[in-house]
Design a protein that fits this description.
single chain; alpha/beta; Collagenase (Catalytic Domain); nine-stranded mixed sheet; 5 helices; 9 strands
């Protein structure tokens, strides 16, 4: 029996008991085996909103979109729900506490990136995460649009669940689902049709989180090394590339964990 199907059986049983019929999930853009520890289906990711205008509505829509389960072009097995709460970050450094995602915007400067998502992992488990939105570039006419803001916010939030990119070519055709929707997890030079997840993203979440539950995650972990996560020189080894630039990086930490950084570069 294929492993993806085997992992989904417990959830399929739950759905069948509710009288629903669902096709098995099929997607393949997880990053490693990284996922949040959880002991129930569905489970909720807590996201701290530290955003200044005009970003809050884009985060709210991204949170709502990632929690959709209404069949047809989504997936009723989508395990993720997002609770947006007041932010807990004390500065633009946007350091998250264990068990949380913190989301921040600031003029992070001319460092080349529009948005970052970082997940701190121990073993296979995500223990905390952040998103950063760089107002230096969103003040430029090329990026100061609702489509670009929603695209970047939605993609970076998707990374905090353990998703990688569906595609890392900015200039190819959109990766459409059966309903003709592009994906926020697809690199695009024109994100007008890529501002939200599509069916492939929901399928991948069902695959990542289907089939087993975890013991409770540790209440806290040892403090990681202190360094500037906004500086590309501190991201560690580049593992995936687009046009010669790294788009996914991993850095080993002295406490035995890793920091995985996902990047959307400015042109």
């Amino acid at each position: 029996m294929p492993s993806a199907v085997r992992r989904l059986i417990p959830l399929l049983v739950l759905v069948a008991s509710a009288g629903l019929v669902v096709a098995p999930a099929s997607a393949n853009h997880a990053w490693g085996n990284y996922h949040w520890a959880r002991s129930q289906f569905p489970f909720t990711v807590t996201v701290g909103d530290n955003l200044a205008p005009p970003w809050a509505p884009y985060l709210a829509r991204a949170a709502s979109d990632w929690g959709l389960t209404d069949g047809v072009c989504n997936n009723v097995l989508n395990p993720v729900r997002v609770a947006v709460v007041p932010g807990g970050a004390k500065s633009r450094a946007c350091k998250p506490a264990t068990g949380r995602v913190e989301v921040c915007n600031a003029r992070y400067g001319n460092r080349g990136w529009l948005g970052l998502a970082g997940i701190y992992v121990r073993g296979d488990h995500i223990v905390r995460a952040y998103m950063k939105l760089n107002d230096y570039y969103f003040a430029l006419p090329q990026y100061d649009s609702p489509a670009w803001r929603q695209y970047v916010a939605s993609q970076e939030l998707g990374h905090t669940f353990g998703l990688a990119h569906q595609d890392e070519d900015f200039n190819n055709a959109d990766l459409l689902d059966a309903c003709g929707r592009g994906s926020c997890m697809d690199y695009s030079a024109d994100p007008a049709n890529n501002t939200a997840p599509n069916q492939h993203d929901y399928d991948e979440l069902a695959t990542i989180y289907g089939g087993h539950f975890d013991a409770p995650a540790p209440a806290a972990i040892a403090v990681e090394d202190e360094f500037d996560v906004e500086d590309p020189n501190n991201w560690g080894q580049a593992l995936r590339f687009d046009r010669g630039r790294g788009v996914v990086y991993e850095r080993a930490l002295s406490n035995g964990g890793k920091l995985v950084t996902f990047v959307i570069w400015a042109e």
